[in-house]
Amino acid sequence: MSSEIVTLRPEPLTAKAFAAFGQVIEADHEKSYLINEGTTRRFHDLAQADVTDEGGEAILSIFRGTPRPLPIAISMLERHPLGSQAFVPMQPAPWLIVVSDAENPTPASCRAFLATGSQGVQYAKNVWHHPLLVLEPTQDFLIVDRQSAKGKAGDNLEERWFDGKGAILQIP
User: How many other C-beta atoms lie within 10 A of the C-beta of residue 102?
Assistant: First the structure.
């Protein structure tokens, strides 16, 4: 494994660019219609939670993130083999995403995305991603992910730590 530092430059988050990793969650006028006597626009079926393996069930949580020290060092990724995981920002502030589609991720296999405060993502099962990366002093996210079936532990978290120096995420 190389001990050189890889520099990651975030690209804009789009559904096409992120498709190999999951779904982008954002208000899409094409997937919307009026409800409640025309007073509310419903943005419908923006992502599908995939959490029922081994009897898991969908839960909602709020994660409150704080920024990591600059420069942001990417030294590990995690994945969830039994369920998808969605992150939807609750404030209109940009945030960062780092993912890899390699079975054995390395810093060089990572891609970084810059999400707007109106974009969320749903990581598909088994997608390697970095834990939450926020840019504001405090950012809240609505999370949809998997809880193990009652009475079962479930093993839905794997971590991969990089050898060497990892990657540095360059903030735009």
Answer: 13
Beta bridge partners of 123: 22, 85
Residue 48: CB atoms within 10 A of its CB come to 10
pTM of the model: 0.92
CATH number of 6-169: 2.60.120.480
Q: For the chain, give every domain's residue range.
A: 6-169
* Sign of the dihedral through C-alpha 170, 131, 52, 57: negative
Distance of CA 138 to the CA centre of its chain: 17
Nearest one of 89, 59, 74 to 130, comparing CA atoms: 74
Per-residue pLDDT of the chain (172 residues; tens, 9 = 90+): 455 789 999 999 999 999 999 999 999 998 899 999 999 999 999 999 999 999 999 999 999 999 999 999 999 999 999 999 999 999 999 999 999 999 999 999 999 999 999 999 999 999 999 999 999 999 999 999 999 877 666 689 999 999 887 899 988 7
71 close to 9: Cβ distance less than 8 angstroms: no
Q: Which residues contact 103 (CB under 8 A, 6 or more apart)?
A: none
